[in-house]
Amino acid sequence: MQIPVRKLSQRISFLKQVGSALVFHYVEILAVKRCTYCTIKVVDIGQPSPASHPQLLKGGELTPGTSSEEYVLRRKNFLELLPEKGLAIIAAAPVKMMTGVVPYTFRQDADYLYITGCQQAGGLAVLGHECGFCMFMPEANSHDVIWEGKTAGVDEALEIFKAERAYPKRKLREREEEANGGGRNAQSTKYLY
């Protein structure tokens, strides 16, 4: 009979009953860069997924208890409430820093999470009758990937979050100018809450 005592990513300690005595065993395990509980390749999208966290998410869920179809339905219902030529731009929460290099624990903006299901910082969601659901995703540099892990990009926005269009965030100004015909009309901007 074995009783797990402590399980770390690279070490396992357990108690084993030998006769009437409990013997403490310590086993060193090499870390393997693959999921031992599934045979499919795990795609890292910068947040938990059913493949990477099967104990947390069921198949088809983006967040615990909420499927990707639910997020599509939420966007559809939101678009029905928008005026005919209305446009909604919802920004993800930024990363806030305690000191120069120490961030606070990240908490996603509730509106952005409710509409997209995306739990990473720095994105933009644009919803409108003409453009549908468009996401502008931040681009990760090699330094960020090493220290913070992979983040969802344009491909993940289309495949995982079911965006109709997706662009890198650096193309936001370019897409805005194309949509406005090269100019801005600040008089037409209204904030409705």
Summarize the structure.
This protein is of the alpha+beta class. It contains 5 helices and 9 strands, in the order βββββαβαββααβα. It is globular, with a radius of gyration of 22 Å.
- Give the helices and strands as they follow along the chain: EEEEEHEHEEHHEH
Class of secondary structure makeup:
alpha+beta
User: What count of helical segments does DSSP give?
Assistant: 5
Q: Can you identify the CATH class of the largest domain?
A: Alpha Beta
Keywords: Aminopeptidase, Hydrolase, Metal-binding, Protease
InterPro entries: Aminopep_P_N, Creatin/AminoP/Spt16_N, X-Pro_dipept-like
GO biological process, one term: proteolysis
Protein name: Putative Xaa-Pro aminopeptidase 3
Fold and architecture overview:
With 193 residues, the chain is an alpha+beta fold. The protein is built from five helices and nine strands. The protein folds into two domains: 1-31, no CATH class; 44-179, Creatine Amidinohydrolase, Chain A, domain 1. Strand 2 (11-18) and strand 3 (21-28) form a beta hairpin. The termini are far apart. Residues 171-193 are annotated as: Disordered. One of its GO terms (cellular component) is mitochondrion. One of its GO terms (molecular function) is manganese ion binding.
